Amino acid sequence: MAQFDYDLLVIGAGSGGVGLARRAASHGAKVAVCEESAYGGTCVHRGCVPKKLMVYASSLRDELGLLPGYGYSSVQSDFDWSRMLSNIHQELDRLNGVYTRLLDGSEVARLEGRARLLDAHRVEVGSQQVTARYLAIAVGGKSFVPDFPGSQLALTSDDLFQLPHLPASVTLQGSGYIGLEFASIFAGLGSKVTVTFRSSKPLPDFDEEVRSFLLERMQARGVEFRVSQGIRELRPRDGGLEIVSDKDSWTSEIYVCATGRIPNTQGLGLVEAGVKLGERGRVEVDSLCRTSVDNIFAIGDCCGGVQLTPYAIAQGRALAERLFGDAQARFEPAHIPTAVFTQPAVGVVGLGEEAAEEQFPGDVDSYKAVFRPMKYTLPDKPEKTLMKLVVRRS
Ligand code: FAD
Asked: CA 10 to CA 111: how far, in whole Å?
């Protein structure tokens, strides 16, 4: 029987990879994880965590505006962008250390460097070669800017954690949650914000009423929406940019492309090892995370399905169970709760009204309430909350 260095080699120490590696090791498997950058992956270093910290920074400024209504008379609101970013990066360094210790404490070997498959069991990491009985691809995704005139002037969400100062004006392209969340962050901090996308409303696939409500509430907070149009060109103008769409043109200090991410599978040696890739390089997997090669599995964003941290973690843990614990373990959620950290925030679980009606025609009721949250009464702010319940009658 072939002897391998490891029972399992996980490529990528993001949310999914770390969850998988630690759970596999807890079953006594000999596990290694290979990481080319910082431990914790996108969520910790370029995604959920720094973004959420910026959401707090932005919404705190908003809260200051409420204080006079509650009897406070003088409110200091000087904001230092560089100090905020430096504090965020300190926290990310701390989390890198936490992840490192979690892996070490679980007796998962750490291999540092970029991995490339040499065959279905052999992986090159820098100058080192290691073998494993099972390989798990957990390399995540990366930001992507389509090619168009001036696209080299575009920023992505990654760049927003490195900006030298708070921009006076920001244009974000994309109707998904990443663009909208940053729109709320910058608007809350005082930048002039424009959001543009091809559809007529944000958050495709969400309930129509929720989409309209968010659009209206973000507009009420000063975000400008330029909808039903695509970006054609970016031109340098007065230290900033002229943004040309197929309908219009306007100026903005920065432009951020948030139209989607692509799997991080280029140059990984997957095709050479026989792993089938789908469009944009996503790893093709079945519901048990199996690729086209028997001993190679893939989880998380690199598979191009649901791209959320808890999903990648749950997929990884279930895979570890199947390989080294309970062979019947499954992760096949019917509904995934989702939060969008805009201002106001959106939280959803289950089907929207249109999707429910399509699945259960004529058998759906919906109930809703729109009201001003009590917190905004004394400061007399025109904020609103929408609550909506969609139920199947029978
Ligand atoms: P990743 O976390 O991307 O990890 C992949 C790891 O693999 C990386 O560390 C990378 O360096 C490493 N790697 C890649 N190639 C190689 C190689 N060849 N060799 C060695 N290492 C390699 N999700 C939420 O649930 N909630 C949120 O609020 C949220 N906000 C987000 C905000 C932003 C701006 C972004 C970009 C994403 C956000 N996400 C959020 C999505 C979330 O970050 C991802 O779904 C999650 O990180 C996916 O985990 P993963 O393990 O699949 O990949």
From this structure: 10
How far apart, in whole angstroms, are the C-alpha atoms of residue 279 and residue 284? 9
Q: CA 339, CA 128: separation in Å to the nearest integer? A: 41
d(CA 277, CA 264): 12
Kindly give the distance from the C-alpha atom of residue 326 to the centroid of ligand 1, in angstroms, as a whole number. 27
* Greatest Cα pair distance in the chain: 77
Are 301 and 42 contacting, i.e. CB atoms less than 8 angstroms apart?
yes
**Is 309 a pocket residue for ligand 1 (Cβ < 6 Å)?**
yes
Give the 3-state DSSP-derived string for 350-391, with helices as H, strands as E and coil as C: CCCHHHHHHHCCCCEEEEEEEECCHHHCCCCCCCCEEEEEEE
342 C-beta closer than 6 A to ligand 1: no
Mean pLDDT over 106-124 rounds to: 98
Write out pLDDT tens, residues 41-66: 999 999 999 999 999 999 998 899 89
Determine whether the shortest distance from the Cβ of 32 to ligand 1 is under 6 A.
no
Asked whether the predicted pLDDT for residue 176 surpasses 90, the reply is yes
Rg of the chain over all Cα atoms, to the nearest angstrom: 23
Residues 6 or more apart whose CB falls under 8 angstroms from that of 304 comprise 141, 263, 278, 279, 280, 282, 283
* Pairing state between β 346-348 and 31-35: unpaired
Q: Return the ligand 1 atom nearest residue 52 CA.
A: 28
Confidence at residue 1, expressed as pLDDT on a 0 to 100 scale: 52
**32-50 burial string, b = 16+ CB within 10 Å, else e?**
bbbbbebbbbbbbbbbbbb
Q: Residue 345 has which token pair? A: 């925030």
Look at residue 195 in the predicted model and tell me its pLDDT: 98
Token code pair at residue 110 = 């750490």
